[in-house]
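Its record is quoted verbatim for completeness.
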Amino acid sequence: MRMDLNHLLNSLIPSWNSAGLLLVYFTYLRLAGSVLPGKLVPGVTLSDGSRLYYRCNGLASLVLLVALLGLGAWADFVSPAVIADRGLELLSTTFIFSVIVTSLLCAVGSKSSSQSSSLKPYVTRNKLNDWWLGIQLNPHFMGIDLKFFFVRAGMMGWLLINLSVLGKCFENSSLSQSMILYQLFCLLYILDYFIHEEYMTSTWDIIAERLGFMLVFGDLVWIPYTFSIQGWWLLYNKVELTTAAVIANCFVFLIGYMVFRGANKQKHVFKKNPKALIWGRPPKVIGGKLLVSGYWGIARHCNYLGDLLLALSFSLPCGISSPVPYFYPIYLLILLIWRERRDEARCAQKYKDVWAEYCNVVPWRILPYVY
């Protein structure tokens, strides 16, 4: 036991090799994001009337990166299991990077004299709160929109970790049906994210959250390393699923995907074109601002329900012998309830009487018929 603990602690020690891998990864994303073709998507109009533009070429960047890594593995230039072999080391290195970046953002942002919505500093008397929530809405570095860049890095990092874990399974000759199911669900989810990457430009994180440790750590550490817990667990634990369990798991994934993608698409399309049909009918709107058609007429934040079902589908291939693989859906449930409360408070302050009317029309929160 002592030897295992010592091995675990040693595995957590950052290294220059891990820092180098992280640097190469970010450099690739910077170059690919600038060079590869992609749709230029206008962001939402900010409070000062300005708007940012986002080059949505994440799918092309991802496909090229996986192809390059595949060629590197074929040529024995890089091991497919390199991330799996250095998982904890990369985790600690990325965490330190997140702390450094957040501290720099605070230091630079607090000195900004800009009055634009993106770069205006929001400084309070609570320095820890400023560090956690951030000071500027959309800070840039060398022409990079850091908020959009980090969330792309996190989502791609999640897939790279999964593929490396899969490579480790082949290396150990331990590939299981459960691992295939988990990998398939995550692959479909991540590919879908990048196919619809432009929808990210109208999410709350992009349009309202400032860039502090909460988002930096969430994007670079939390998303790739906690969303992949199920893969790590299946790497060291064998699970046999019945045919009925596989079918039920697929059903949960499909329902979750339908609700998640459908709700987010309806919201995004409505913001771009308020007259676009929803489920074949003209949209119903309250106060000219709040959509109450489609999924948004069933429950407030119905997209969160889809997200929770998807998270559950990633864990179900692990069976029910341990709570460890269910850390992600449990955490997500707590997070989304907390976020939903914050969103409710902000919307009530922003829309006032219109929001109260909306709540009367759509009384359910996240889960229909459940407050």
Summary: The chain has a mean pLDDT of 89. The chain has 15 helices and six strands.
